[in-house]
Amino acid sequence: MKLYQLHSKQALPISKLEAWQFLSDPANLKVITPKHMGFNIISGADRDMFPGQIIQYKVSPFPGYTTKWVTEITHIEQGNYFVDEQRFGPYALWHHKHFIKEINEGVEMEDIIDYKLPMGVLGQMVHPILVKNQLKEIFHFREQKLKELFGSIETIPNQLEFKSF
After folding, report:
1. What's the gap between Cα 2 and its chain centre?
2. pLDDT band per the 50, 70, 90 thresholds, residue 74
3. Does domain 4-164 have CATH number 3.30.530.20?
4. Average pLDDT over residues 42-69
5. H/E/C letters for each residue in 54-73?
6. pLDDT score of 117
7. Nearest Cα to 81, choosing from 66, 97, 65, 103?
8. Distances 81 to 33, 127, 135 between C-alpha atoms, Å
9. Which CDD domains has this protein been placed in (predicted)?
10. Rounded CA separation 150/17 (Å)
């Protein structure tokens, strides 16, 4: 069993409260997801985030393939972090931690995603070709969209790193 980790950091010139209000609103996930992925929220995003909240989406990670993705918000520390975990969807495991930290120029957003692919060795074989590249594309799109919405702190480089265990 191979476990993968994506680690991303991005600095934005906004307040911690503004960052929290945007990032903790599940409806904004559609705003920062590439349109070609056909991301649509089916249910569960109609109220403020809370532990135990179930959110259902439909997403097309690859052309011609649409799947339902169900996540649960498992942990929240208001204004600082939240965790979502896949309950049903395209991954064998998806555990996504979102951190917001105040810095001198604004905030640093940090994402740590631990994930596992289905289909054993076959899943491991397609990871570098399909999954890793798609996650890079999604996070690059998100980075650009957040810069467009909020600006950027040019003195702090954004980071995107993958590991496997």
Report:
1. 20
2. very high
3. yes
4. 93
5. EEEEEEEEECCEEEEEEEEE
6. 96
7. 97
8. 20, 28, 21
9. SRPBCC_3
10. 13
Supply the pLDDT for residue 62.
Answer: 80
Q: List the 93-103 sheet strands across, edge first.
A: 40-43, 54-62, 65-77, 81-88, 93-103, 106-116, 4-12, 159-164
At 43 the three-state DSSP class reads strand
Domain range summary for the chain, segments of one domain joined by +: 4-164
Instruction: For residue range 8-19, list pLDDT tens digits in order.
Output: 999 999 999 999
Instruction: Record the tokens describing residue 38, joined without a space.
Output: 């056909």
Contacts of 43 (CB under 8 A, 6+ apart): 54, 55, 56
pLDDT score of 61: 83
Whether the CB-CB separation of 8 and 160 falls below 8 Å is answered with: yes
DSSP character string of 87-110: EESS-SEEEEEEEEEEETTEEEEE
d(CA 158, CA 113): 16
Q: What stretch of H or E contains 121?
A: helix 120-126
Per DSSP, 139 falls in state: H
- 132-165: per-residue pLDDT in tens? 999 999 999 999 999 999 999 988 999 999 999 9
Q: Token pair for residue 84?
A: 């979502």
